[in-house]
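Backbone-to-sequence.
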């Protein structure tokens, strides 16, 4: 694992540490999770776009009345 050095406002760091403590984790682990999420955003967008393309021709089968939609 590679180390990186970041700089941020002291108050921001303190608040982030409080969040980490509340979640029973570390600031370092929260940052890793955030970094993974950022790194995977483009891949997720591509997958969602591909799914929407596949669903483009799907027909629901007709028009539904409000009662039919809300029937349980």
């Amino acid at each position: 694992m590679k180390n990186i050095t970041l700089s941020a406002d002291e108050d921001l760091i303190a608040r982030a540490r409080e969040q980490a403590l509340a979640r029973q984790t570390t600031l370092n682990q929260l940052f890793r999770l955030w970094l993974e999420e950022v790194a995977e955003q483009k891949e997720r967008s591509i997958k969602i776009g591909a799914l929407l393309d596949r669903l483009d021709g799907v027909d629901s089968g007709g028009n539904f009345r409000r009662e039919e939609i809300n029937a349980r």
